[in-house]
Amino acid sequence: MARIDQYSRILHHRLTSPGAVFTIPSSSDHTDETWAATDLYIGELGINVTDDKIFMRTNNGIVQLATATASAGGDNIWVYSGTEVQIGNSYSTTTAITKASTATQSVDLGTTSKRFSNLYLGDNSDNKAVINVKDTFSLKNNAGDFLLTSGYLINSENSAIHIGTQSSTVSKTNPIWINTAGGTVSNGGYRHSSISSGNVAFDDVESGVAINAENVVIGDTNLGTIGLATHIGYGYNKKNITGFQTVIGGSLAVRTLDSGTLGGNSQPIYANSDWITQQAKVQTLNALSTSIVTMGWTAGEAIQMKAWVMGVNRDDGNVYSAEVFGTGIHNGDGFAKMVGDVYVLEQSTFGGTASMPPYDLAESTIECDDTSFYIKVKGHSSSTVEWITTYSYQKMQNLFQ
Fold it and tell me: Among 44, 198, 200, 329, fewest CB within 10 Å belongs to which?
């Protein structure tokens, strides 16, 4: 038996070069002069005393051993418990996991091929958890979709949700823009929403909603129409400055009917039968009949329209006010005509009569021809008259197909 001396010490294999690791020898005999200083037998330990790393050779090769750092109370910060890793024996805000003080770059937690499973956070005194990053934080999946923060709350070309971001033009499904500089999308499919955003443009979409938005475009350049569209808010850079008031930008459409057909007619009759309300303006400098509203129509359509018209003579302050109602039909043979007489209920402070000058009194009416349905106004002599109308209409189509 070999002699055993009291106070004997064991010095494990050591490496001093940064990054150096231990290796597996090419032979099973360390005396055959083929072994390197980094070679280990199965069961031997080796230490890189510069990198603070411990290695061991097992039946599976060279493995690096996990190291444990003791806390002030003597508890290991990293403790294996079955398949889990325990951090400290009790929760403490002073128990922290940090990278080595000598590390010169960021350290990853797992890899794309060796991933962790679930991450449970919180459960302290107020049941809150904090993820504190130095700059940008992103969550990404294998498909490349990610949530990215970069100076804004959420900012990502691939993310469907944008809060407080710059403009995005990437096509995506069900995007939501909230308080963004601009939300623009094409070929996007269904359900596009924007709240408190500027320069909103939805193209090639089945539905779009813009609330409290400026410069809104919701359309479909490929098909010409979209299934659903809602825009409530500014419209034309106007501001809602009155409490308990909702401003509808553009026009308001009351839609409670589907497209529908009548009798043996195979074409939709009610596709554009909404009761639509909107506004228009024009300035006249003479007494010629001038269109303030021009609405194109085609054969097989009937339009019923009501307009509230007001004109103010800027030269003398005279006012013209009228309520005008008329209905027209565009026959299948291309001939368009008004149905009965146009109803005009008017009041005016403009001077003159039919027999005394000035003869050119202000007036308004509704007319039609083969191409358009009109609301027309006539000014007063050479005066400048400012006109505005709020008009509503509904129509039926494909009546003779």
Answer: 44
